[in-house]
Amino acid sequence: MNVNQSVPPVPPFGQPQPIYPGYHQSSYGGQSGSTAPAIPYGAYNGPVPGYQQTPPQGMSRAPPSSGAPPASTAQAPCGQAAYGQFGQGDVQNGPSSTVQMQRLPGSQPFGSPLAPVGNQPAVLQPYGPPLTSAQVTTQLSGMQISGAVAPAPPSSGLGYGPPTSLASASGSFPNSGLYGSYPQGQAPPLSQAQGHPGIQTPQRSAPSQASSFTPTASGGPRLPSMTGPLLPGQSFGGPSVSQPNHVSSPPPQALPPGTQMTGPLGPLPPMHSPQQPGYQPQQNGSFGPARGPQPNYGSPYPAAPTFGSQPGPPQPLPPKRLDPDAIPSPQLSELPPQQKTRHRIDPDAIPSPIQVIEDDRNNRGTEPFVTGVRGQVPPLVTTNFLVKDQGNASPRYIRCTSYNIPCTSDMAKQAQVPLAAVIKPLARLPPEEASPYVVDHGESGPLRCNRCKAYMCPFMQFIEGGRRFQCCFCSCINDVPPQYFQHLDHTGKRVDAYDRPELSLGSYEFLATVDYCKNNKFPSPPAFIFMIDVSYNAIRTGLVRLLCEELKSLLDFLPREGGAEESAIRVGFVTYNKVLHFYNVKNSLAQPQMMVVSDVADMFVPLLDGFLVNVNESRAVITSLLDQIPEMFADTRETETVFVPVVQAGMEALKAAECAGKLFLFHTSLPIAEAPGKLKNRDDRKLINTDKEKTLFQPQTGAYQTLAKECVAQGCCVDLFLFPNQYVDVATLSVVPQLTGGSVYKYASFQVENDQERFLSDLRRDVQKIVGFDAVMRVRTSTGIRAVDFFGAFYMSNTTDVELAGLDGDKTVTVEFKHDDRLNEESGALLQCALLYTSCAGQRRLRIHNLALNCCTQLADLYRNCETDTLINYMAKFAYRGVLNSPVKAVRDTLITQCAQILACYRKNCASPSSAGQLILPECMKLLPVYLNCVLKSDVLQPGAEVITDDRAYIRQLVTSMDVAETNVFFYPRLLPLTKSPIESTTEPPAVRASEERLSNGDIYLLENGLNLFLWVGASVQQGVVQSLFSVSSFSQITSGLSVLPVLDNPLSKKVRGLIDSLRAQRSRYMKLTVVKQEDKLEMLFKHFLVEDKSLSGGASYVDFLCHMHKEIRQLLS
Ligand SMILES: [Zn+2]
């Protein structure tokens, strides 16, 4: 085995970080690896003589419900509950929320449709040459981009950051102005240069400051000289497509009063019926607080048949908060017939994801992102940047939908912009960035607010000469314990602030005391148990042999900490089909011993001593076992398997060993053997698009959920590797991994030859990754907002504590916030995420992330500080949870409505008055429509005929825990042309938009979405290129469906293979390559990922969807 040489790529937590100046190893850090708390924090300055007041330890008070500190005090000593910090009796951030938590099963890989089909005659799908620009141009007519100028939004600040913001900030606003990267003064393609009437030549604006769209220096928006007739509703001039994006479409016949008309009315697109039957005007004139589903779109939208509902009686729904769980089921009906859009819009004239990404890279990829300023919007996830922690958590840990949140709930309701944070508490950092320091506050444990229990952080205000501090979350005044006392400087800052991570950094860790441990005992190191299906299918495919061989070497690479020589993690082994086999691998044995448990109805662990062992001590016995397993079952005829008893056995084994840990389950089939959790095949594609479709996503029985809860209580995380040949009911099987913070991997129709690399790569990464065990996460907020909803792979038994049997560096928890009081512009809003967990070495720790946000009284400030990628991450998770309880169509409609409301509110309150014929998008959200469309037509929400139920459940489960970068590329794949850039170029080629129009048949492209990787070969690609890459002489000789490129010694081959390796290295799962030839049958699969185009499943093209959004917005505004 050659693959395991690399040590885990992550620096162990708690290692002293060389980069952070001023921190000395002797004070923090350093103590990693020990299970007992290390020496108390070397009290830098010691208690001050004369100030002997003891801290009121153990006191806690009732939660603040709004602001005023309650007078009463309740006794809540530490250690009263299993978790000192998070115990239920503990203080929370406010009254219990009433939000219903939904948690659901996960799902499966996405693999099967990708199975190579082999050589296919290139007969399908005649592939037309891509449209030339001229052709595209002639299709223009309806919509236009205009530079109509919005006045600079009311300037309540720069839009980001208080006035103290760094000088560099103003020049580096994301998406700032450079969109439409046409060189100054040069007309963009397809514009007026060609004299097309429909489109404006965007004049490039002055380098725009943030999105506040400043007119050019020459004074205001320029009206371009138009050579063609103006279309109605368009005011031209101004900057290019950038800035408040004005995309116009022909106005309805009846123009609203006040519309500035300068030209003849353009033809009406069919979708613009001015008055939609069924549209309920919002009550309060401001689009209402309603975030709820809109009634069906009254008239079919010809261009995009599947959004909207069908013709038919309008069904006005009461305006309510977006809540798929509560959406009444709409009537299902046939989709409207497809029609040709009458008015094409120039695809180059609508906001381009590629351009936005490029601009952000150019503007923000060069300087580190310094977190010292409140409310700064970080660079996009697609930009490479370094982070310097100066008091707020890095965007690698927390990203928000907006960094400037409305002061009042009324404003928030008006804007409908969800306020959410995507939190990745254990995110891995690039080597250049320091892992969080570990702080030890000694026996008394981490210093916290007595009332709200928030941890000491840079925002706490020290007063009275340093003897007390006021909590930044609840305003409670706390005494500073003598050993923590320090003098203040003339600005009121502690003089040791920069020597203490918890006073100067956004992220750090505390060593936990025994009060933070289960049963008031320090934890034992965790254990890994490998549970291997040895039924006929697993043996026949070669899986068992492959796995056992791999484990022999992989066990040397279990996660370690702090430079420890060997991992503290113990291992155990179980094999099973419809009975379970436990193995005694005690080091004193000459041979492993097997114990069979056939009573799966009442699972117990037949041995304790010798089941969980240290790898090095028992190496010989383990190796012998792994050699024997494939032989022992080589002739098995057993096809049936059990599942629940297997997980239960693993969990019981951890319980008996009194430790947390992880189960690695390798499973092949629907568990139909007689046992608890027995399943039947209930797949039924006929349910798609019916009210019962949701049942496909729901678990078949409650047994899995019950089991998962027991696992969480034990700190037993379950990672599930599935190798199905047919339906395995991923929706049910993934309940356990989902609720325990585990992962699901799926390898459909697994064959060693084809899938070995992918499986082993995933397995190695999964086994080696750093995991926090037996974790609890709490998000505290300053007065005025609170966390009300949570998404991710975890369990919650109350409304505030996110319980994670395991949490790794890839998983995120998304938290939504709501107002419960008015916020204050001056003080802003604070978040503190505290994760209590057991490290791989068995050390109990708290990881703290703090983030301060701005608050605004002007909606424009909200819209200038949003992050669309994070919004989409939240909205996708929200929708994917919604399908468990609501018809998929209702979920889609809800998303569309919310998006329209967000954009309509901007239009009404922030944009300059202009014709209703214009679509005006906030700069920070100009990609919202294109990305939202990708979510709407994703396999979960709008499956094509080839998408199997298990894959939908699998994807649903995966997305639940994805971070922002992952959802970004998953919903809008990257398409990279390979032969356009010089072969010597070492940088990644610039991506092109995910549309067939962008493919040149003389080129080769790589497409990746984080799970899949395609190499598309154009039919007219040069023979030399074919030879260099595939070692065959012509296009026709290339094997379609190939998954490995031949290793050839030429620059092109090296470059392409290098690029593939680099793309794989960026993703958390191995992406299997599929070579697709133009006009080949497999191309259908590939085209599924060209998300700007209309999809076969009926999903709208980007252009059509933009028109549709425009219509929705106009309805809201009229
Ligand atoms: Zn407090």
Biggest β-sheet, characterized? 7 strands, mixed
Q: How would you sum up the global shape?
A: globular
Helix fraction? 10-25%
Could you give the distance between the termini? 67 Å
Report mean pLDDT, rounded to a whole number. 76
Please report the total strand number as a whole number. 32
Rg estimate, integer Å: 30 Å
Report low-confidence residues grouped into runs of 5 or more: 1-342
Ligands bound to this protein structure: zinc ion
Structural class: alpha/beta
What does this entry look like structurally?
The chain has 1118 residues and is an alpha/beta fold. 20% of the residues lie in helices and 15% in strands. Strands 8, 10, 14, 22, 24, 26 and 27 form a seven-stranded mixed β-sheet that branches. A seven-stranded mixed β-sheet has the order 18-17-16-15-19-20-21. α14 packs antiparallel against α15 (888-909) and α19 packs across α20 (1051-1066). The longest helix has 22 residues, at 888-909. The chain starts with 58 loop residues before the first strand and ends with a helix. Zinc ion is lined by residues 449, 451-452, 454, 471, 473-474, 476.
Question: What are the defining features of this structure?
Answer:
1118 residues, seven-stranded mixed β-sheet, binds zinc ion, globular, 20% helix, alpha/beta
Task: Lay out the secondary structure.
Elements (H helix, E strand, L loop, with lengths): L58 E3 L11 E3 L57 H6 L5 E3 L98 E4 L104 H12 L4 E2 L16 E2 L9 E3 L3 E3 L2 H7 L4 E4 L14 E2 L21 E3 L4 E3 L6 E3 L21 H4 L2 E5 L15 E7 L2 H5 L2 H12 L15 E7 L3 E5 L8 E5 L21 H14 L11 H13 L4 E7 L35 H12 L1 E7 L7 H4 L1 H5 L4 E3 L5 H17 L2 E11 L3 E7 L10 E7 L4 E7 L9 E10 L5 E13 L2 H6 L3 H15 L5 H22 L8 E4 L6 H9 L12 H12 L3 H8 L2 E4 L26 E5 L3 E6 L5 H8 L20 H16 L5 E6 L5 H5 L14 H16 L1
Parallel strand pairs: 5-6, 8-27, 10-14, 15-16, 15-19, 19-20, 20-21, 31-32
Antiparallel strand pairs: 1-2, 3-4, 4-28, 7-9, 9-25, 11-12, 12-13, 14-27, 16-17, 17-18, 22-24, 22-26, 23-25, 26-27, 29-30, 30-31
Helix pairs in contact: 6-7, 6-12, 8-9, 14-15, 14-16, 14-17, 14-18, 15-16, 15-22, 19-20
The chain binds zinc ion (ZN).
Zinc ion binds next to loops.
